[in-house]
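Standup notes
- DV: blocked on the single-chain target, sequence here:
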Amino acid sequence: MYDVIIIGSGPAGVSAAIYAKRGGANVLVIAKDAGTVGKAKKIENYYGFKSITGEELYKNGLEQLENLNIEFINDEVVQLNYTNQFEVTTVNNIYKSKYVVLATGVSRNIPNIKGIKEFEGKGVSYCAICDAFFYRNKNVAVLGSGNYAIHEAGILKPVVKSVTLLTNSEKLVENRDIDLNINEKKVREVRGFDKVDEVIFDDDSKESINGVFVAIGTASTNDLARKIGAKVENNKIVVKDNLETTVPGLYACGDCTGGILQISKATYEGTKVGLEIVNKIKNNLK
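- DV (later): unblocked, structure below
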């Protein structure tokens, strides 16, 4: 059981981890990759560096975690739950904590497929655990090809009539432990009248579907926020002045909270969250 689990190892997540650890908290950082910062070819507008690549900056952050003996796990988070404590589910394990910080950047996993945005809330969903109930005994599809898509399909399968995995011509993840219908064709359109009725493919074939669950790539910060009931508006997580979400004990920092998408803003918010959590732990607050 950790005091705080931080999901994301970019500037916001590492800053939160450093300040929480220095304040005496038991910290775990979980991340699959370097995210947006790791893709930056050159950074020249950050204090103290004439020029540095995103990859170098990211590696420096991981070294800081190591120097402070902060536990870091390279894994993919697929689910976030809360009972009397937070449960963070990855591909390989489940971890528990008193607090959770979402710091994996802004959501960019909405595919450019006709009908996806138009049918949001009318047959297109981004959260299996939230909406599976509405598709009891119906035929649904999960759009995606990775571990996150497999996980969402696993939640749906006991509830719905059938689940089809739409890989959209992407390579399907290996070592999956669930039996699914798989369609590897390129998706052209999600179509319906007042709700989703079918999916059209590039070869003009179609499949009758009552709902499409979007789970492309890894679960974004917004995906995880929605799963636990935190408010998301205009592609950003709604937070209070102290960066706590609408779910007590759940914080968000960095690009996912909107505003200026800069490293300086991410490190500031990470610092603020780390100090806020330490204060609550010391004063036995929730």
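- Follow-up: The chain has a mean pLDDT of 91.
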